[in-house]
Amino acid sequence: MRSDDKIVAELIRRRDAGTLQNSESNSKRLPKPLAPVKIVTAEEIIGSSLPTLLARIYTDVANGGFGDSYGFLGMVGGPKNEAGLDAIGLWKAFMKPDPNDPRWRWRKALLPIGHLGCGMYHCIDCRTKCGKIILFEPNPHEDGESWSDAFFPFCPSLKKYLEVWLDGGDLWQAFT
Question: What is the domain count for the chain?
């Protein structure tokens, strides 16, 4: 298992070589890393600390734009989803009650970071130091039912998630 330092170093090496990108793009231009104060602000908004490795990725590597499928959303600014929302904007939208669905609930410490398309996201559980990854898959959700049918454990840690991705592995095959 790679250390956090080795994962960050490999991400930086690939960024600098122009080979760090998301699966759905040929773009090699990534947004600049965030200033640490932006991470502090994001943590204040969600009321939880980000796992250390995730914070380092955003402050040392890039403000999103690389990774599986459409890649990591920008934390604040940077790459956005189809609705023009970065990770914090999407989190804020998910935290709002839905007047048409009284059962809608988003867990406060769950931050959507990986944009998969079709309303699906890899989310990081900020309550866990290792950054457990949860899949939010709303498409098979049954109207009128609890939203628990849309959240699935995906990967035990951000570190393992990134190791598989950096090694060219298929995240879906590795973790489902």
Answer: 1
